[in-house]
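User: quick one - fold this with FE2/S2 (inorganic) cluster bound?
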Amino acid sequence: MHLIENQWYPLLESREIGRHPIGCERLGQQLVFWRTADGVPRVHYDRCPHLGASLSRGKVSEDRLVCPFHGFEFDADGQCRHIPANGCQGNIPKGMECASFHVCEAHGLVWFWLGRPRETYPPLPYFPELEGGWRYGTFTATWPVHYSRAIENQLDVAHLAFVHRTTIGAGGRSFVDGPHVEADTTGIKVWVTNSRDEGQAHSAEDALAAAASQKEPGLHFLFPGIWLLNISPRMKNFIAFVPMNERETRYYVRVYHRIKNPVLAKVYEWFVGLSNRLILDQDRRVVVTQTPLDSSQAKDDRFIGADRAIIQFRRLHAKLMEEGNGSG
Ligand code: FES
Ligand SMILES: [Fe+2]
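Assistant: Sure. Structure tokens for the protein plus FE2/S2 (inorganic) cluster:
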């Protein structure tokens, strides 16, 4: 799969991985995830080097991943340690190993380093806005779309009055003032005002920039694929866009809040989660119709001023593809 390299990708939520192996398609590969006895997440290709069976159908026994077909045992680094048919004194042929990958765990997510192994790794991309005292509830969804279209949909500030006219876009606020966009190869910040069209003029860029300097961005995106919607100082929506393959993207959608009471928190997460599902379903209906699937191939798209954040995403995505994939 065509992806920006030398980046940390969130692949799964921590709670999805237990001692029992699970198989998932991520970044165009079938992968198997499991945990060692001390709780460290491990990731390998979900393919036994013997005759290609799926290791995720096996089990974990004493810190080894055991293939369900002929019982070969692999350690946390993917090295084969035991071949039952050869006996405990038997040899292990060269190359009998499953590739294992560098992962880390933070913010309730398991992150995968896509790139060559290195001595030290860059810090994980995460939002400073979410530091300290936040709680969250998560729901997931799988869309039949390329990740580029999924991300652009959440940077699109001109669709609300149409796609979401019965929900967050009610009131016919089709006029887009801005967006003011600040972007670099780490991410994109977006400030925008949507209002009814009453013949007003657009604000000048310096006025938008001055207003933006006074407040947090409404939308904040970090490469390669996490997004934050600042609803209020106490409420934020988060999405991790996880590429599964060229045609499917997994969404991890979180409602972040500061409600301490666990019952109230659950009720809040359930209610906001439900409305987020409804809103995202409205997006889904149009995003699945976009062609071509991968926006980097969409050379014929014609932009308007309101598309500034999308334009920046395409520009920086192309730049990172070139840089990240060239530097090894
Ligand atoms: S295919 Fe896995 S042990 Fe034979
Ligand atoms: Fe939307």
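One thing worth noting: The first strand starts at residue 7 and ends at 13.
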